[in-house]
Amino acid sequence: MSSDAGKQRTSRELLFLKRMFSSYYRRVKIPPPPDFKYREFGFMLWDKDVMVRHKSFSDAEQLQNFLAEYGPKHAYRSVAYYYDPEASTMESKGWIGADLVFDVDADHLNTPCKMEHDFWVCEHCGAHGRGGKPEQCHKCGSSNIKEFTWICERCLDLAKEEIIKLKDFLIDDFGISPYELKIVYSGHRGYHLHVYSEVVRDLTRDERREMLDYIKGIGLSVSSFYRKSSGVIIFEREGWGGRILKSLENLLRDEDGLTALKDMSEMDRSTLEKLRSYKSVILRGLREESPKIILPKGVGEKTLIKLLAKALKMFEVEVDEPVTIDVHRIIRLENSLHGKTGFRVTEIPLNYLDKFDAFKDAIVFRGEVSIKFLFDCPPLRIGEEVFGPFKRGQKVEVPMALAIFVLARGVAILL
Q1: pTM
Q2: Taking a C-beta distance cutoff of 8 angstroms, is the pair 252, 283 a contact?
Q3: What residues have CB less than 8 Å from 59, skipping those under 6 apart?
Q4: Pick from 359, 388, 350: which is nearest to 371 by CA?
Q5: At residue 10, does pLDDT exceed 80?
Q6: Burial 314-325 (b: 16+ CB within 10 A, else e)
Q7: pLDDT at 8
Q8: For 331-351, what is each residue's pLDDT tens digit?
Q9: Which long-range contacts (CB under 8 A, 24 or more apart) does 86-89 make?
Q10: 3-state secondary structure of 280
């Protein structure tokens, strides 16, 4: 494809995407965030590479009209509250406070499925491969490489596990009320968690970092969660101590867990066998009102510390730190559309989080459209049906939601 043809393709597809996004905003009312008059809004448009920032809206209708007119590729709003959100510098906005926000993204997790569905293409010679892009093309040495990320159930399930752990930390360890929490699917590969509480609104960057350090287990010493008395090791049940105990109990309970313990802690086979033969006694001790362990003969405290350290790792939460620490951050506007997927940025009731399915609950476009694929692409589920995989050059009629997903990624064109 020549560069001129590429430009024609780009303008045609981008115009289509803008039109479809605008149609969504014309038919669906977007509830503004709390106290939205004090929020800054930002937008990425389809025909510009820069963000339109420092905007504010006096009422919900004004925001709705802007979304319907421009059909933005991405829509954001600030986590902070300002006296003058339209001021052009942060210093002149007049910072009032900021919600506490967390971002969990599958991109930051060790998801093996990336090697199955993410891919890259060298824009110089056309070489391609699976997984994340290399620094240089293995064929021609060019660094002009384009990366294409995909999403699947496993990506989002792992991100969901992290957001559930995070929710439990905030409620159990920090005393945040469930009614002050809002979980939002990002529209792509992760989830956001918003804390709306006067208690957190004035937190400084350093105080937000301290919360993150606790949630991520940074600087924790497992030896601080137990004490020794007459050869018996007695555990704390509160906070991190309780989590470590729960993790250790889960690992000991079944054979796969024992094997995982061996692999994680570099335990030798004889030590593993001692734990296996003694595990019923250990589990009984862990379930007592004052949890305790009497280690089997030949298993010392050093081994215990290794096991507890690995158990701790299982409850650490992987979050995008800059999002939480930045008190001027902007984050995706709830119920807007994500410009890389066409999926809705969806609010999720806490009691529905386990059941939430992005491939059904975040789909907003209906109908079908004919497209042509420019690259080999992995399958994608829309609703109950899986479509693909697709071959380069394949022409096919697909659901509108799938078409928008691949058009937005630049891996297909309209017919």
Answers
A1: 0.88
A2: yes
A3: none
A4: 388
A5: no
A6: bbbbbbbbebbb
A7: 47
A8: 999 999 999 999 999 999 999
A9: 86/40, 86/54, 86/55, 86/56, 87/54, 88/54
A10: helix
Q: Where are the beta strands (DSSP E) in 292-393?
A: 292-293, 330-332, 346-348, 368-373, 380-382, 385-387
Residue 258: predicted pLDDT: 63
pLDDT, tens digit (0-9, with 9 covering 90-100), for 13-50: 999 999 999 999 999 999 999 999 999 999 999 988 88
Q: Could you tell me the end-to-end alpha-carbon distance of the chain, in angstroms, rounded to an integer?
A: 15
- Token pair, residue 358, equals 């992005």
Residue whose structure tokens are 């590479």: 49
What are the pLDDT digits (tens) for 200-209?
Answer: 999 999 999 9
Question: By percentage, how much of the chain surpasses pLDDT 70?
Answer: 94
Architecture of domain 3-109+152-211+320-364: Alpha-Beta Complex (3.90)
Say which DSSP state 344 is in.
B
Residue 25, token pair as written in the block:
């905003």
Query: What's the CATH code, domain 222-313?
Result: 1.10.8
Distance CA 351, CA 332 (A): 22
**Domain 3-109+152-211+320-364 identical in fold to domain 222-313:** no
CA distance 20 to 15: 9
Q: Over 80: is that where the pLDDT of 329 sits? A: yes
Burial of 114 (0-12, 13-18, 19+ CB in 10 A): buried
What distance in Å separates the CA atoms of residue 387 and residue 402, rounded to the nearest whole number? 8
Question: Measured between alpha carbons, how far is residue 363 from residues 228, 374, 391 in Å?
Answer: 55, 24, 24
